User: Fold this.
Amino acid sequence: MPDGPIRFAVEARGLGKRFGANRVLSDVSFGVPSGQTVCILGPSGSGKSTLLRCLNFLERPDEGEVLLTGERVGFRNGAYMKEQELSAFRVRMAMVFQHFNLWPHLTVLGNVIESPVHVLKRPREAATVDAEALLRKVGLAEKRDVYPHTLSGGQKQRVAIARALAIKPQVLLFDEPTSALDPEIVGEVLAVMKQLSAEGMTMIVVTHEMGFAREAADTIVFMDAGRIVETSVPEEFFAKPKTERARQFLQRYVR
Assistant:
């Protein structure tokens, strides 16, 4: 059970991660209040994607802890949770990946209902009704019976978002959701994400889309070399960054 009042939907405390001799995260701490969007910015190799994977224990951090609505993730009675227990947390903190990760042998509808039916054991009929509503939400109702290979990259990513929403998570993690897309279709994915943010979905977004971060984020977390260098609201970060490293980053990425 959580100790005391819950301040954050998800919180990282002192996260550290190494791959061999390479330290990729060092003492990373931040919290995301329920209903807010945090955008994590930083140069390539700064540890952003590793941080996301540590939050839902696709990678196990070497130090620190993650709390989901005040409950410690990953450990129980001093030992790592079993994979089945971790899977239950990942239902509450779903992830949208850079390269979609759709199941090619399932239709669009099949992709969206797979986890609700087979992981959460929801009735197929109810899961289908929910999935159809989600496909309408992301603008793909007419694609319910086609297979992923027939879709554009933007359409695949919107299906991936619908699939993540289908398990009714408390938090959505996005790992560079537009970086694999052609520039002309990035907007259709960002529009869905902006809508979710406006509706109060708790979101942590690793992105290089500065316009989205400026418009949708409640908080900007700027990382470099595995550490959080700066945290502020978008208006301050983009107008008057506090650190020289953030100023250099913005000069390169913001036109």
